[in-house]
Each structure stands twice: as structure tokens, then as C-alpha cells.
Amino acid sequence: MAAYGLYTHIQSNKRRSIALLIGLFFLVYLLVYAGALVGEALTIDAPPDVLLRRALSDALYAAPWATLATALWIFIAYKFHQSMIDAVTGGREVTRQEEPRLYNLLENLCISRGITTPKLKVIDDDSLNAFATGMNDKQYSITVTTGLINALNDAEIESVLGHELTHIRNGDVRMLVIAVIIAGVIAFFAELVFRLLFQGGFRWRGGRDSGDRKGAGVAILIALVLIAVAWMLSIVIRFALSRKREYLADAGSVELTKNPDAMISALRKIEGRGELPGATSAVMEMCIDNPREGFSNIFDTHPPVDARVAALVKFAGGHDPGPLALPAPGEADAGESEDADQGAPAGPWGGSQSAGGSGEPFLPSRSPVELGSSPSTDSEPGPWGPHRK
User: Fold this and answer.
1) Which of 41, 299, 314, 318 lies 20 to 30 A from 197 at CA?
2) Residue 152 contacts by C-beta under 8 Å, 6 or more apart in sequence?
């Protein structure tokens, strides 16, 4: 059945994501077969068809062990992925007392939907980005940069938090973490096969006749093709998961906040300013925007901001202000201070009424009264009758 609304699109995306994850598992077994083919080619003298059959038998025998190794890899990442991400990005958990503005915005969104408030973390960096991580309610966390906090207003920050909460609600965070883990398994097996090939591939050349060398060479060529195909497909699957979920997270944020313009302006401010120093490509895939670009956008993990904004304008009725220029942090602070001084209302004596103004004080000065002295009885006429000096 075709998807026709936000929630049916979310369910459709979940089914598609599960199918893609199953495909990633099959790629692991494909790499096991490629490794077995390389091993057979390096150890026995046989034509290609014999090597292919023997490699299939070896792969079936090794499949349970490959499954166990992949499960162990996932378990380790399940337990420690958050600490590894924090170590890479420098994220630190904050409390309501440390970030009351940010914490209140997040808590209000969670209360409005009756969901558990995730942990809140902050990265001390001028870049503009945010991402969600975790595998269950006890692990879920949302991390934002100090640059994002300083550059966005409350409505825009609320939209970014709504975007990340939607990733958590839709199961995108758990799905992407698992996909990154399995893709890591594929990369590990691919590197293992290459090491086996290049470390042992030159030992047999002198001891075989030309027919045997030809058969082994064909088998190794097939194995290399399989490894390349598995690696490329794992990347494509990861990018497919990343690209689709961003559109749904943008729409989910608007559904939460009822403010498409804030989501659009937040994307425009974040656009091209989200590079996290030291972050791996896997971490950048989880961010609200990934400025790292691939070849002709084929390998981009996120759809272009223009496309995301166009979708919000078309389907949510937002307004696109176009690319936004942001002042440097120091310039912004100086400008705000100057505007505050210039915009302060003048007092009745010509000075500023602001607390730090350089004009005359708001109240006129009076001569001090000595303790124990009686007030003066002299009076002078005032607008409502005589009063004492």
C-alpha cells in the first residue's frame, strides 16, 4: 500500500530500513565467501570451478562463526557506542541548572508527546550542529554544540530538538547505529581479506604451472570483485538510511512545534556550518546536517538543504528566506551591546535609564542627612502644593 501521510511514510520507512539492514547482514556473508575463496586460491592447486565450490562449502561452515562475531561486535557497540562518540566529539552531559533554556525547551517537547526526556549533552565548539544517539530509553541522548545554542533563537532551537526527537521516536537512531556497526563489520572483514591476499599472495606463484596460476588468479579476481561490491553496497545502504530519514525528521519537527518557518530558518543558519572537528564520518551521518560532500552528491549522507527546505515549503507551508549570513561570535556580542546602548530610552535628565548607562542617574541626587538631625521645615511650592526640601 502506498504511503499517503506522515505516519504511513514513517511506517513505510521502518519496513524499508529493516529490509536494508537484512541486506547488510547478507553482505557480511558475501564477504565471508570472498575470504574463503581467497584462502582456497592461496592453498590448493585447482581450476576456478573447484575453488568456487570449495569456497562455498567453507563459507557455509564459517557462517555461524561470522554471525557470532557480528553479534558480539553489535553487543560491544550497544554498550559502549555513546562513550566512544563522546570521546570523539568532546560531548558532556549538562543539567537543567547548567543549561536551563535548552533543557526547558527539550522537556516541554517531551511532555507534549508523553515521551521520556533524553539526556542532554553539549559540545563546546563554534560549529552549528546537533545529533541524537542511543539504543533504548535509558541511553537516548541529544547533543548540541555551543555554536548552535548561541546562533539560533528559541523557536529555531526548539525545531532542531524536535528534529532529533523525531529521529528517536521513529527508531532512526537505533537503526542507524546498527547500520554503522554492521558496515564496520564489513569494512573489518574486507580489510582482513585484503591483508590475507597481499601478505600471502606472492608465495605460491613460483611453485605452480601456468594453468594453476590462471585458475587461482581468476578466483582471486572474483573475490576482489565481491569485496568491492559488498563494500559499495554497504555504503549505499547507509546513505539510503540517512537521506530518507532526514525528510521525515524535518516533517516530524514541524508536526511537534507547528512552526515550519523556524525549522527552515534553523536549516538555513546551520547550512554549511556543521563540521565537527575530529568527528568520524559515522558521527557526521547522525548530525542534522553533514557538510561533507561526496562525488556529485552520490555519496552524500544528507539531502541538500535546498531540497529539504523546498519540501517544507511545499508540504508544510513554510517560507524560505534563502541562505543566511551569520556574524562572527565576537561581532555578534559587540553588535548586541551597541544596539542595547543605542536603543535604551533616555531618562528625564537626558541620560540612559539602563543600569549600565553613562548618562545622569534616573533619580536626582540629594544632600545627605545626618543621623539624629531633624528634617528641615523650609518648604517651597510644588505642583501639588508646598513640600519640604
Assistant:
1) 299
2) 128, 160, 266, 269
